[in-house]
């Protein structure tokens, strides 16, 4: 008696799904919506395509006809010249190193702080959490001058430490992770404590694995923010060998203000890793946007 009932329910669900698909296909505006979405996608991707085509033109190429940028001749010598004869590749590595270390330290510190605020009992806990909330109301530009003075007094200017350490504080990350840790079932926490689980094991083996979606979202946006950060590296770094891409690219492009090819090649070298990373982590980035509520 059980099997026919299950098969009947499956048949009903399949029928409902088919009816929904038919209703969707009967939408008179479906083709218009798809066409409009296709046009918008082309409009967004066209500058990237144009940049890639310009980047493989011979050095010094110039034309007044827009279509000529997409036609031969092509040359990949610009990529080799910029990688080996300029600091673009070094700046790319600097951005990658700073972004990865900043993301790791931010996740470590914010998760520990959120766990303490969520699961540990101590005085003035609510007051401390209010300070984290107030931190979201202060724009980063307002803290640049005191941050610069502190970094200068500690001897952190013009160093990797000066690029990384001031950027690892994330009040938003603490707030998001605390909300996740608050939703962990109390029965799980209490049973782990009864079994003799220490605070560190409780954090590392029970609470932290449940917050993987929040950790992914915070990690993605921290890395993107570090990769695109311009103001603080511009103020704190003096040596060109320590420049990150947002600071180094304008310096490089300013020497070729009347040319197209070499600046576009440099921008392509800087953009290709980001495009590849986006294609790989597209689902995680979309989930992170929906999770945190951040909108561009």
Automatic annotation (TrEMBL):
Entry annotated with the keyword Transport: yes
Domain of life the protein comes from: Bacteria
Record-stated family: Belongs to the binding-protein-dependent transport system permease family.
Pfam families cross-referenced by the UniProt entry: BPD_transp_1
PROSITE patterns (UniProt xref): ABC_TM1
Membrane topology: Multi-pass membrane protein
Subcellular localization: Cell membrane
CDD domains associated with the record: TM_PBP2 (cd06261)
GO cellular component, as recorded: plasma membrane
Organism of provenance: Fredinandcohnia quinoae
Transmembrane segments annotated in the record for this chain: 34-56, 91-115, 127-148, 160-181, 202-224, 260-281
Alphabetical UniProt keywords: Cell membrane, Membrane, Transmembrane, Transmembrane helix, Transport
Entry keyword annotation includes ATP-binding: no
GO biological process, one term: transmembrane transport
Domain ABC transmembrane type-1: 92-281
Name the UniProt record assigns to this protein: Carbohydrate ABC transporter permease
InterPro entries in UniProt: MetI-like, MetI-like_sf
